[in-house]
Structures are given as structure tokens and as C-alpha cells.
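Final report, closing paragraph on structural work. Over the funding period we assembled a curated collection of sequence-structure pairs, and we close with a single example.
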Amino acid sequence: MFYIYSMQRIKWTERKFSFDYPEGMFPFFLERLRGTPARIEEMIKNIPEEILVRKRGNEWSVKEHIGHLIDLEELHDGRIDDYLNKLETLR
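Its predicted structure, as stored:
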């Protein structure tokens, strides 16, 4: 797992997204979203609580990031509905 931390991560605000995926990609995205809780649990299961809540300056802690993902779950569910209803613009 240490190799992950040596990579240079791309900031969320600098990521580029494509919205022209074919409908056949929907099962992949759905499975990816459904698997998020298990991946998070696996990633943090051996990390002590004091590290999970630690903040550096104004940056979010690991737990705050996880909480943000949970808060966005409703948005993800809505976007899946938008996608299934073939709306031109997702919420």
C-alpha cells in the first residue's frame, strides 16, 4: 500500500471528466459506486483513530473526506436516476 502514497495525486479541481460514455458503461459506474464503502473500509481498517481525525492546517481529515462522500451519496443516486431517464443534464 505504500506505493500509493509515493504517487503524485491529481487535485480534484484539476481533474478532467468525460460525459460521453456509451450506455454500456453504466453497469461499470454503478458497480464502482456500490463498492465504495467496502474499498474505504479496507483502506482505513488498520489506521488508528488519531490519524483518521488528524488535520493539517485547514485540510480535511480522513474522516471528514469519508463523511463528504456519504453526504454526496444522495447526489450520486439522483444522477443515476437522471442517467436512467436519459436527461440531457445531470443534477
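The two ends are 35 Å apart (CA to CA). The chain has a mean pLDDT of 88. We thank the funder for supporting this effort.
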